[in-house]
Amino acid sequence: MRIGIIGVGAIAEAIVDGLATTEQPGEISLSPRGARTAGALAARYGTVRVEPSNQAVVDRCELVLLTVPPGAITAVLEGLCVPADRVLVSAAAGVSLANLKQLLPNHPQVMRVIPLPAVRAHRGVTVIFPDHRTSKEVFASLGEVLVPVDEDRFEALSAATATLSSQLGLLAAIADWLSGRGLEPAVAEGFVRGMALGLGESLADPGRSLAVLVGDHETPGGINELVRHAWLGPADRARLAAALDQVVARSRGVPHNSLG
Ligand SMILES: NC(=O)C1=CN([C@@H]2O[C@H](COP(=O)(O)OP(=O)(O)OC[C@H]3O[C@@H](n4cnc5c(N)ncnc54)[C@H](OP(=O)(O)O)[C@@H]3O)[C@@H](O)[C@H]2O)C=CC1
Q1: 259 lies in a domain?
Q2: Atom of ligand 1 nearest to the CA of 95
Q3: 219 and 157 in one domain?
């Protein structure tokens, strides 16, 4: 099966890197937009080609991934004829199945996915909704696949991915603090990265829950417990939950200022 990708930016590049390095890579057609990345991918992999238009991608491929910015979805789909026998898989955060279907008069099958950059190394956990055998097979070649029971849970998982830059921002803030204490910035950053990579190893063990891992990294009355209580108390968790609720509300089109 030839896979098409419309919108060749950061996440599309990770997906193509992942797909093209599986044991039996299939053919991939890319849209011309995102020209630099698309051209680089076609040069990198013999199985990848750049098509002359978005429509050419749809015409050549049974399964088409939409990885354009959410704000471009309407313009992209209004400019396309997607026949009923195609499978359209949208990665656009916050664009519901209902919204997508409204823009697809020929009623192709429509799926939503949340791919993460780790698909590049075949270590992603990709969320797919609704369940769809072929889409699952594609993303199973890039790591694990999770199929929630409904779109509300899909939106909640999508909101959770909105914490990724905050998690990295926390590491950057710790490195900045170290620099403020006189450490060379490169030394500070290297140390913090090393700590985080160590955590990655702990996280890879599915036998220990997150709550157990928190305990594993704390001595009662010790310094880890001190810092966690100081800045991750109930009020901080409530602020985090409110921000995530806001992400879900935004994806449902609820204006921010109408939130309690
Ligand atoms: N980055 C991530 O980790 C994740 C992203 N997503 C979703 O994936 C989508 C893409 O995100 P990301 O890769 O980060 O964004 P980027 O901005 O890196 O890439 C978006 C690409 O879409 C292209 N594009 C814009 N308009 C059109 C159009 N009309 N036709 C064809 N291509 C178009 C842009 O082309 P040009 O460069 O020419 O403007 C650009 O190459 C978003 O909807 C996002 O919500 C979902 C999960 C994770």
Answers
A1: no
A2: 43
A3: yes
Alpha-helical regions (H) of the chain: 10-20, 35-44, 54-60, 73-78, 97-102, 133-140, 151-161, 164-180, 185-203, 210-216, 223-231, 234-251
On whether both 47 and 8 belong to a single domain, the answer is yes
Tens digits of residue pLDDT in 59-95 = 999 999 999 999 999 999 999 999 999 999 999 999 9
Transcribe 11-53 into DSSP letters. HHHHHHHHHHTSSS---EEE-SSSHHHHHHHHHH-TTEEE-SS
Give residue 252's pLDDT: 77
Report residue 201: phi and psi, to 5°.
-65, -40
- Within 10 angstroms of residue 178's Cβ, the number of other Cβ atoms is 17
CATH number of residue 210's parent domain: 1.10.3730
**Ligand 1 atom nearest to CA at 93:** 45
Identify the CA nearest to 97 among candidates 54, 59, 66, 125: 66
In a domain, 126, yes or no: yes
34 lines ligand 1 (CB under 6 A): yes
Give me the pLDDT at residue 69, please.
96
For residue 32, what are the domain limits? 2-147
Would 40 be classed as within a structural domain?
yes
Q: Which two tokens stand for residue 215?
A: 């305990």
Closest CA to 114 of 85, 83, 144: 144
In this structure, the residue with its CA closest to atom 2 of ligand 1 is 11
155 has a pLDDT exceeding 60: yes
What separation in Å is there between the alpha carbon of 66 and the centre of ligand 1?
8
Q: Is residue 21 part of a domain?
A: yes
Last residue of a domain, one of 108, 130, 147: 147
Is 65 close to ligand 1, i.e. is its CB under 6 Å away? no
106 is in an annotated binding site: no
